[in-house]
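For the sake of transparency, this paper describes our internal protein records without simplification. Because each token names a local backbone shape, the row as a whole describes the fold. One such record is reproduced below, unchanged from the form in which we store it:
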Amino acid sequence: MIVAGLREGGDGETASPPADAAEVLRRAQALAPVLRDRAEDIERNRRLPADVVAALKATGVFRMGFPRELGGLELSSIEQTEVIEALAYGDASAGWCSMIGSDSGLYAAFLESDVVERMFPSLDMVVAGMLFPGGRADRVPGGFRLTGRWQFGSGITHADWVISGAFRYSDGIAEPGPGGIGPGSVLLMVPRAQVEVIDTWHTTGLSGSGSCDYTITDVFVPDEHTLYFSDVRSRPGLLAQPEVHMRNMPGVPLGVARAALDHAREVVVATGRSDDYRSQIVLADCEADFAATRHAVYGALRRQHEVLTAGGTLDDLTALERAALPLSRRHAFRTARSILTRLYDLAQTSAIYRPSPLDRWLRDTTTMCQHVVAQDRILQTAGAHLLGGRPTFPLALGITGPQR
């Protein structure tokens, strides 16, 4: 079995692929306590060990976004978020890398179907990389020559493909973006073997995610391995949307916060402090924040799902409904960090020692809150959308066209 294989040092891939969303979630939940047992090892390793990657593959998490027509599971964004939440409950870095790696199938909508079949002979293959432009793509016959250096290649140490954003150049001249606004960029997929990983990942938290810098030097990328989130090349659908890769991100902070709350409650009960007023107040207050935040995330995702399932588009969401997606996502990250800070204080000196999971979870949530989806740029983007202004990060709203 998946869990037994990991505990015994096996490859974790003896199980057949899961049949549906419920089975992926069951496998993720079963793996979570094993990931918890391996958390210190994962952190010390500064990347996911090979057997942990194999066990994650066996849950089906990396194949859950692929379309059914290609043999994938095509889980909804709601179902994907639940799976990521379950894995992050075991370990934050494993949850983070699962979230990143599960985007492999989501990119399929923006590539030709026959290209996806050639690129992914196994649906458990992993894509890592940085989407923000950090390189230069010079047009040449049949594609681009790509060169650059990128940060935050989460999961790149176990990836099969690397996706990178780059500014487009033609005959040495920068190409314009949509509507002639800003520089034009493109996303390019390169085999991991053509990428040099630079070991820069010595961080506060999420240490086991292996989110190293990497460089690509003068690599030819054929046009068929490039993509734009504004261009759906295969079958349209619920997951063929420009911001689809951001939707399941809240699963990581929600899973970590839930783990910390359960741990803190167990410690309070075990140490005979169930009638302690401060413990009661802190735990209840944190539970209230967690419940409200989680409901906001899944409520926004459900409303989006309803509109898209009915044949609508993101433009059919009201301004408030569309803004709720990035806002609830940001709030999940910030609330998780707030919860960990309060629980850390509640535990007092026992929390400061590295064996304490609260110490690790506090550092993990602090680090993940530095991601752009948890920053004030999201507030500006949502606020501008609500007020009819110009968002600075329109992709967070699923907007790819020119802005006024």
Notes: The longest helix spans residues 277-309. Residues 250-397 form a domain with the Butyryl-CoA Dehydrogenase, subunit A; domain 3 fold (CATH 1.20.140.10). Residues 1-5, 7-13 have pLDDT under 50 and may be disordered. Residues 110 and 232 are 5 Å apart (CA to CA).
